[in-house]
Amino acid sequence: MKTAIVTGASRGIGRAIALGLAANGAQVVLCARDRELLESLAREIGNACPVALDLRLPDSPAKLVDAALEAFGGVDIVVNNAGATKRGEFETLTDDDWMDGYALKMFGAVRLTRAAWPHLRARAGSLINIAGSGGRTPGAQFTIGGSVNAALLSFTKAMADVGLRDGVQVNAINPGPVRTARLEKRLAQLAADKRIDAAAALDLFKREEKISKVGEPEDIAAMVAFILSDAGRLLHGSLIDMDGGLTKTM
After folding, report:
1. What is the CA radius of gyration of the chain?
2. 79 vs 30: CA distance, rounded Å
3. pLDDT band at residue 182 under the 50/70/90 scheme
4. Least CB-packed of 39, 60, 226, 242 within 10 Å?
5. Is the predicted pLDDT of residue 193 greater than 90, yes or no?
6. Backbone angles phi, psi at 112, to 5 degrees
7. In this structure, is the dihedral angle defined by the CA atoms of residues 214, 87, 198 and 10, taken in order, positive or negative?
8. Is the pTM of this model over 0.90?
């Protein structure tokens, strides 16, 4: 039985990934800051270990790996999913906003990868980074997130080279707009600003973003499952856009 660490597992995409991995037979180590939500998810999954940590703190990733080893004896899969960055006009974003954006999504992922790598190497495991379409298609309201995601994609490519040497599969997924609580707030604000209903706001959002649809967390979880399957083993160093056509670059 394989053991997977999933960060940002308490809600949204991370929660869906954790549920999907468990459904496919994995033991799952769940990490986020909200202990209550993690414990509720662990009870739902059954074969799971909730670990409430703030991965922005430098020593937290190593503690997470230690908890996985104590609970299940090894690590086969790491999914770096934690991290939401602040949106807004560039001139209003502070140094603290930028530092916080990098602290969790980039440095948390780097530190967790470093701590888990010897165990992934020992088990010919897999590393999946959940980045985002902003890393390839930056926008004026997403200067922090776009640059953080771009850095995470570069990190993915570099670690894929290390993975060739060490026998570890490394890939990244770039979700576009996905129906999470954060997106629902944006859609509700759009509906209020335009004085339209929720369905009309969703249609307007899709037209403005030039996408075919808004994704569901389960869509990203399904791609994670495919990457980890025998059929997905050819994927290595791949930056997979799951964004309804938002990314137009080659």
Report:
1. 18
2. 10
3. confident
4. 226
5. no
6. -65, -40
7. positive
8. yes
